[in-house]
Structures are given as C-alpha cells and as structure tokens.
Amino acid sequence: YFNHSLYYVSSTKNTWNDSREDCLQRGADLVIINSREEQNFIREFKTRTWIGLTDAAKEQTWKWVDGTTLTISFWDTDEPNSYLGDEDCGEIWSYTKENTWNDALCDRNNVWICERKM
C-alpha cells in the first residue's frame, strides 16, 4: 500500500500485454508512476518490472495505460531509444538508481506490478 493505492507484484514473468491482462482481471492495471516518491517506492521491490507505459499507439508518444501523457518521467540516459527495433513498452530495468526507465520489446518476459487505486 502506498499513497491510496494497492500494489501487486507478480511472482512469474510474462509479456507486457499478458501482464496487463492479468492486472485487469484483478480489477487493477499496470502501475502508473506519478511522482518521485512512487518511483522510489516501486524501486524497493528490487526487480526488473513492466510499468503501464507504452508508445504502441503512436511512436514516441508515451502514454500511461489510462490514456494520460507523461507529466514526470524517470528515463535512463539515452532512453527511450528503440534500440532493438519496435520497443513500445516501458519497464524499470534496474532499481539501483532513480532514473531507470527503459523502452523494451513488448514480447519479452518480465515481472509486472499492478496498481489499484483505493
């Protein structure tokens, strides 16, 4: 629990789309990070994880799963970069520093975090 939301961290790995579907079935969605405090809270789980961020609808227009655009971001240096091609899904790739968002291929398997507003 953090700032009026409940969080679920998966114990398995899955694609971004399948991870989102799991969250939706739980009455939640992939996590939306709205503040530095929430970013640091999510980093405490100490795992590479999917977040609810994608530019699949329009390249380089990153939006959260609820359709809102970014108001604050924690991209790693030189990210997002579509390094491996069509990297349309957002992840926290490391927990060792604050700015660790990466754009990744959506079909890679990651742990995911669901968020349900209370």
TrEMBL record:
Keywords associated with the record: Lectin
InterPro entries, alphabetized: C-type_lectin-like (IPR001304), C-type_lectin-like/link_sf (IPR016186), C-type_lectin/snaclec_domain (IPR050111), CD209-like_CTLD (IPR033989), CTDL_fold (IPR016187)
The keyword Iron-sulfur is annotated on this UniProt entry: no
Taxonomic superkingdom: Eukaryota
SMART domains, A to Z: CLECT
GO molecular function: carbohydrate binding
Name of the protein described by the UniProt record: C-type lectin domain-containing protein
Gene transcribed to yield this protein: LOC116311798
